[in-house]
Amino acid sequence: MDNPLQLSLQTFRKGSYIIVEGKQKADYFYIIRNGKVRLSKEVEIVEEVGGNVLSPGDFFGVVSTMSSHSHIETAQALTDCALITVHREQYGLLIERNAPVAMKIIQQFSQKMRFLDEALTQITFKTTATDDISHLFKVAEYYARQSQYNQAYYAYHQYIKYAPGGENINTAKERMAKIKPYAKVVYLDGDENNFTRSYPKDTMIFSESQPGQELYIIQKGSVKITKIVNDNEQLLALLKPGDIFGEMSLLENKPRSASAIAHDETVLMAVNNANFNRMVASQPQIISKLTQLLSERIWFIYKQLANTQLTDPLGRLYDALLIQLEKLRVPVGTQAYTFDFGPQELINLVGLSKDEGNVLIRKLFENSKVKVLNNKIHLTSTEEVEKQAKYYRKMERIDKSRKKGSINNF
Questions:
Q1: Domain Cyclic nucleotide-binding, which positions (predicted)?
Q2: What is the pTM of this model?
Q3: pLDDT at 167
Q4: Which of 62, 50, 49 lies closest to 287 in space, CA to CA?
Q5: Domains annotated on the chain, with CATH
Q6: How many whole angstroms separate alpha carbon 357 and alpha carbon 344?
Q7: Which range among 74-83, 121-130, 134-143, 399-408 shows the weakest confidence by mean pLDDT?
Q8: Rounded to whole angstroms, how far apart are CA atoms 157 and 296?
């Protein structure tokens, strides 16, 4: 006997608050049946894709519900509203019974991810993301200078393939010939007939700015997601078995926004467009996993964007550490905790220059409860980070209120 899809209808009067930013235990998300809802955030950096006023058929609260994190926005009824409520555990059944709703959520999430990623890149690194195919040559040149010939050879090959008339085509061919004896590469042109693929350690799966038509599910090993920004490699994520990546290019048919490199011996399952459409109907657990993954990424990037608005850079370091604790679901209390990254990664995470970052790191370590152990940041008390981050956020709100009052009185 099939499990019933249990959806309920809730009504809210005009002016009512439906969800509140920062509230924990987000168990339900909402689909608007009648009425209009306005979304807002304490720190509004970029407007929502499609605007902040939602209408019938739109949904909200999915990010926090499916990522099991606190709400990242406040939703208020602009009119009397009737909302369909969906519990997190009912999402798989919703996909089975109404695949178009799931596809709408995933498509909008993918668009939102790319939009937010470009905004964060511009704010944090003072540069813009590029879809220009010529960027492949710059990626190859960077890795060649680092003597990382696997990645360099792969990126040169993609540049030659997709920009045959490019101004650096001859240079790319010469470089490839020189480094070929030292390069280990696989699936240079993909393999449409082989959906289970093995990648040796330090080989490139795809390069940023390369066209892509597949997403990947990690079966074994781990994958680094990186980006070349201001001639430096930024580590964006380290993914493990069960994780999904590469979905934005598949869903939007746009170039890759970052590179994927095998961190260990890695086995992947490749999913193309035709397979993905079949999965939506036949394997709802994978679509549910993808929704959870996108929700987690969007939640994290919203937190990172809010972090960029703290004017005190030391406060940004504390706030970044607190965001990492919540992302990793580490309970905040008197217990100790060691992050899997060190001071330099923390500096990169908040987009500080090396010189400014080193000065601030020294100030951070003046706090006896924040240390370095084996080049990893160690907290003797996670509660201390929460206390400091909340203090700097409070000071930021006071300062903004004071400035706003000064303007209003002018």
A1: 19-112, 197-297
A2: 0.73
A3: 94
A4: 62
A5: 8-97 (2.60.120.10), 130-289 (2.60.120.10), 310-409 (1.10.10.10)
A6: 8
A7: 121-130
A8: 33
> Residue 96 — φ and ψ, nearest 5°?
-60, -45
Burial of residue 130 (number of CB atoms within 10 Å: 0-12, 13-18, 19+): middle
The string of pLDDT tens digits covering residues 55-98 is: 998 889 988 888 888 888 899 999 999 999 988 888 877 777 77
Backbone φ and ψ of 32, nearest 5°: -75, 125
The 10s digit of each residue's pLDDT in 134-193 is 999 999 999 999 999 999 999 999 999 999 999 999 999 999 999 999 999 999 887 777
First-to-last alpha carbon distance for the chain, in angstroms, is 69
Given a cut of 80, is residue 376 above it in pLDDT? yes
What is the DSSP-derived secondary structure letter of residue 263? S
Q: Which two tokens stand for residue 23?
A: 């509230």
**CA-to-CA distance for 101 and 109, rounded, in angstroms?**
12
Task: Determine how β-strand 37-40 pairs with β-strand 74-77.
Answer: antiparallel
List the one residue out of 146, 150, 144, 115 whose CA is nearest residue 260. Answer: 150
Tokens of 5: 């899809």
Alpha helices in 195-260 (DSSP H): 247-252
For residues 361 and 319, what is the distance between their CA atoms, to the nearest angstrom? 14
- Tokens 């152990």 -> residue: 373
Token pair, residue 392, equals 């700097």
DSSP letter string, 344-386 = HHHHHHTT--HHHHHHHHHHHTTSTTEEEETTEEEES-HHHHH
Cβ–Cβ under 8 Å, residues 207 and 139: yes
Q: Which 3 state secondary structure label does DSSP give 77?
A: strand
Helix (H, G, I), strand (E, B) or coil at 74: strand
The two three-digit tokens of residue 93, written as one number: 């059944």
